[in-house]
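Q: What would this chain look like folded?
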Amino acid sequence: MPLIAAALIVVVGLIGYALLTRPDPAAQQGSTTSQASGAAASQAPGGTIAPSAPIVGLTVQSPRDGDVVSTEEVTVIGLAPPGLRITRDVSLFPDQHATVDSTGHWAIAVRLGQGDNTLVFRIGDDRSTEQRIRVTYTRPAG
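A: My prediction, written as structure tokens:
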């Protein structure tokens, strides 16, 4: 019986979350719909892109895994549920953090070392949401 009650509470919570975070249909009238990195999005007033469905989990959009860059610093950009804290694991130093904005976007500036760099991101302290990308920094010739 306690398991059924717990499951019912989870289901009611998920339905409540979906109702609270769904976009306002009246605000989307006259807007254009486009695809943004595999997620449906709509053009909001002022030219910003607002997701039309709740974002679930953590996604790193840029740079992509395996990218080779010629700049020592990159801005890692991604998607996650609004308001959450994104953590970048940094070995031997304090971790870096960013807060997801109201549209589900986050960004963290990362200084790269020469050669291969493995970058690890997660939502807060939840290691089950961990995303790893490998970015190679090659100094430009000259």
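The first strand starts at residue 33 and ends at 36.
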